[in-house]
DNA sequence: GGGCCCTCGTCCTTA
DNA sequence: ACGAGGGCCC
């Protein structure tokens, strides 16, 4: 008998597991999987078999407890996880579990909103608006309201609206709380945005959740119906649920109170998206009678990997104290190496990968994680050079590619002509003589015309438009209405008809550039529609729903023997025998935007912890001394490595890179670049290794502003304008003259006219001041 | 007015 | 390096 943290005493084998379903679970897993009912919190560390517990519990509820599949609701984090979990349960039970509700919160809410469209206040054929369309719409609204409508502003606004929605705050509630001028503007636009969505019968991702919640709140009979139906509710990755998702779960669990949530506060990585780790920390407050189970035995990683990961996460405050352990014997220390720049970092990874492949490790066993998508490029280039097959998860999502969105926009218009964003897109691409001006008038007059958008187009649109534009509109309307009459046909047939008769292929060819790749993507889209038709029941509308809810994590191709590249966020829930975590530099991982906020830093640390704990046998960490990123360099080795006990990882840099490293450079310094530059020169600029470290190899002061180095000439942080006219040297761009200053301190952006003739804005920290 | 070309600011993570 | 917007020509 053991007492676990939190004072939960656990018996050994309880022998409630008379069912073979639970035979191979450990006692803690079994207790959770066969728990009698009531609220249950399972704190499951990385690799502790939580998916196993969830699938076994669902199977156990159905077989041992005789529950009907439709009385169980299981919420997963991705559609892929839902599909896998369903398949797993079916194979455990040897029967179909048709009727089981399993999916992401978003997919489940969409299902409700469609099923109860009228009650939810939507028309039929509700369409999901993706992030890009959301931005397009917001920019248009900003412009119409006379505000700055740069993509940046639109993104800021999108984030504000999204955060409000994730707190379950409607436009009206948000407006009521708005005080500062900026908040009032945001409130106005939030309202306008919701009206625009409403006009086109659209919902964004956050609306799916909020709409689902509103449906349950405003229609007690519907809420009671589902609350009665779902005798058992299971939620995976509970640490990454937001307020709205909590409220949904809480409402649905009210009748039976059989709510099992599984999560790990150390793996909460979506705070920026509105996830509230409080949901899991406060579970016992919300459900006072809840039992708590801890899963701390890790079945995934070797002891050295776990020891390193445990040490990393132990730096965080505000967490349930816990430590994973394993019975796995042996294992190598995690490795670290420092490269001169990102090309060499990528090259070294490719080199190690090739060697391991030669030694018999299949490529598919290896994954490479990075903090931002932009880091994939050097890796791709290195892999291409060495002929290493790879697949990128995420990045520019397939369905977010311009050519794919173009073609899909026609399909969306057919299903929902009021979708203004898609209609604007379809009208404009390929060019058919309908320009900005005509579009504005078209939509301005559409309302008064009293007919639908396609009929209005067929009639020639606004009388004020040019004869050419009117003719083009009429042809477009005619064509779309003819296609609309065929909507009962399979999506694939409609889609290929669209591609064929729109002249889209010619349009792409004419565009030049990477048209071949774009053309291939269009063909791949047609193939995906064909696959949908062959696999799923449902027409064009269902096809579009599926496309909208697909996520990057859903498209991991498992079959081929390839290395997988993805962001650390996308890695959640996965495991690989061999893992590389790259770009471990201050400002990148942890990301620059988190450096001045302790909570955000802790989230970065959790993200790093998630990345490391994906590894089963091998973990290699890497960093670059220099990085071309918005014309800036790297910020020194990540604090996540600096703060880890030195004996928990091995420095495998060819020249003992760590040994010469002078300590944490928490802020980017000019020295880092300078060193990297001299390293490149010393290596003849080729892919050679290492940087010439201080010959002494000892510690070296690298603190910013120590007055001894390149910094001494810098003016104070007060008045920056005396800097204009100063001569400077930049490691990458050479000598130049300051022509402008933006901001203060080391974060100031200095405009420099370089001798080469180019003018650039660079961070002050990267400049050396010449006399 | 519509479309092409060139210059400029810009990319953190996502259901 | 990529897209958006401004300028310019049809």
Structure overview:
This protein is of the alpha/beta class and 771 residues long. It contains 29 helices and 22 strands. The strands form 5 sheets. The chain has a 7-stranded parallel beta sheet, sandwiched between helices. Strands 5-4-8-9-3-10 form a 6-stranded parallel beta sheet, sandwiched between helices. Helix 8 packs antiparallel against helix 9 and helix 24 runs antiparallel to helix 25. It is globular, with a radius of gyration of 29 Å. 44% of the residues are buried. The N terminus is likely disordered. It binds a DNA duplex (15 and 10 nucleotides) through helix 4, helix 10 and helix 20.
Mean pLDDT: 80
Q: What is the strand arrangement across the widest sheet?
A: 13-14-12-15-16-11-17
Low-confidence stretches: 1-18, 659-720
Enumerate how many helices there are, as a single number.
29
Quaternary arrangement of the chains shown? single chain
Distance between the termini: 73 Å
Helix content range: 40-55%
């Amino acid at each position: 008998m053991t007492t676990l943290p939190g004072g939960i005493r656990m018996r050994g084998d309880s022998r409630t597991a008379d069912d073979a379903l639970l035979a191979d679970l450990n006692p803690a897993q079994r207790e959770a999987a066969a728990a009698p009912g009531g609220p249950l919190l399972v704190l499951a560390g990385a690799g502790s078999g939580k998916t196993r517990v969830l699938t076994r519990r669902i199977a156990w509820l159905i077989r041992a407890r005789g529950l009907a599949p439709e009385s169980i609701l299981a919420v997963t984090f991705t559609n892929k996880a839902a599909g896998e979990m369903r398949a797993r349960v079916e194979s455990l039970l040897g029967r179909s579990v048709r009727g089981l509700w399993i999916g992401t919160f978003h997919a489940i809410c969409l299902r409700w909103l469609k099923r109860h469209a009228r009650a939810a206040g939507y028309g039929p054929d509700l369409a999901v608006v993706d992030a890009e369309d959301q931005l397009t719409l917001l920019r248009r609204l900003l412009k119409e309201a006379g505000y700055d409508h740069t993509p940046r502003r639109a993104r800021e606004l999108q984030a504000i609206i999204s955060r409000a929605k994730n707190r379950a705050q409607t436009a009206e509630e948000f407006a009521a709380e708005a005080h500062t001028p900026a908040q009032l503007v945001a409130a106005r636009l939030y309202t306008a945005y919701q009206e625009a969505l409403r006009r086109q019968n659209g919902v964004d991702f956050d609306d799916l959740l909020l709409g689902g919640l509103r449906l349950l709140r405003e229609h007690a009979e519907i809420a009671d119906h589902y609350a009665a139906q779902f005798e058992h509710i299971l939620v995976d990755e509970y640490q990454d649920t937001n307020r709205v998702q909590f409220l949904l779960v809480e409402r649905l669990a009210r009748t039976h109170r059989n709510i099992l949530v599984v999560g790990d506060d150390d793996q909460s990585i979506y705070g920026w998206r509105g996830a509230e780790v409080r949901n899991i920390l406060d579970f016992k407050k919300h459900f006072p009678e809840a039992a708590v189970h801890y899963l701390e035995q890790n079945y995934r990683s070797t002891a050295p990997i776990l020891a390193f990961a445990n040490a990393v996460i132990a730096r965080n405050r505000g967490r349930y104290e816990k430590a994973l352990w394993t019975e796995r014997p042996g294992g190598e220390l995690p490795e670290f190496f420092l490269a001169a720049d990102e090309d060499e970092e990528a090259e070294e990874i490719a080199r190690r990968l090739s060697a391991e492949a030669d030694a018999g490790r299949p490529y598919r066993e290896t994954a490479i994680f990075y903090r931002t998508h932009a880091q994939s490029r050097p890796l791709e280039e290195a892999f291409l050079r060495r002929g290493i097959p790879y697949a990128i998860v995420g990045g520019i999502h397939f369905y977010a590619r311009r050519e794919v969105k173009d073609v899909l926009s026609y399909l969306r218009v057919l299903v929902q002509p009021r979708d203004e964003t898609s209609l604007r897109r379809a009208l404009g691409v390929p060019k058919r003589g309908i320009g900005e001006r005509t579009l504005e008038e078209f939509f301005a007059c559409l309302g008064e015309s009293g007919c639908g958008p396609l009929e209005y187009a067929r009639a020639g649109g606004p009388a004020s438009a040019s004869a050419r534009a009117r003719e083009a509109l009429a042809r477009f309307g005619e064509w779309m209405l003819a296609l609309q009459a065929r909507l009962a046909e399979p999506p694939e047939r409609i889609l290929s008809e669209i591609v064929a008769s729109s002249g889209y292929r010619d349009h792409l060819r004419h565009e030049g550039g990477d048209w071949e790749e774009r053309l291939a993507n269009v063909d791949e889209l047609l193939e995906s529609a064909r696959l949908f038709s062959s696999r799923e029941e449902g027409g064009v509308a269902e096809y579009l729903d599926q496309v909208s809810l697909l996520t990057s994590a859903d498209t991991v191709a498992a079959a081929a023997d390839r290395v997988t590249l993805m962001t650390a966020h996308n890695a959640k829930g996965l495991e690989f025998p061999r893992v590389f975590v790259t770009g471990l530099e201050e400002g990148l991982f942890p990301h620059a935007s988190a450096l001045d906020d302790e909570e955000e830093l802790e989230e970065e640390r959790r993200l790093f912890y998630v990345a490391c704990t994906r590894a089963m046998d091998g973990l290699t960490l890497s960093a670059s001394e220099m990085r071309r990123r918005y014309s800036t360099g790297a910020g020194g080795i990540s604090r996540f490595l600096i703060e880890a006990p030195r004996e928990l990882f091995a420095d495998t840099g060819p020249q003992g890179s760590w040994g010469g490293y002078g300590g944490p450079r928490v802020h980017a310094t000019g020295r880092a670049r300078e060193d990297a530059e001299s390293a490149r020169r010393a290596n003849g600029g080729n892919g050679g290794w290492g940087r010439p470290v201080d010959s002494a190899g000892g510690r070296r002061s690298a603190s910013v502003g120590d007055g001894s180095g390149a910094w001494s000439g810098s003016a104070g942080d007060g008045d920056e304008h005396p800097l204009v006219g100063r001569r400077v040297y930049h490691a990458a761009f050479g000598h130049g003259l300051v022509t402008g200053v933006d901001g203060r301190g080391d974060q100031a952006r200095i405009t420099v006219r370089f001798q080469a003739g180019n003018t650039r804005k660079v961070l002050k920290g990267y400049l050396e001041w010449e006399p």
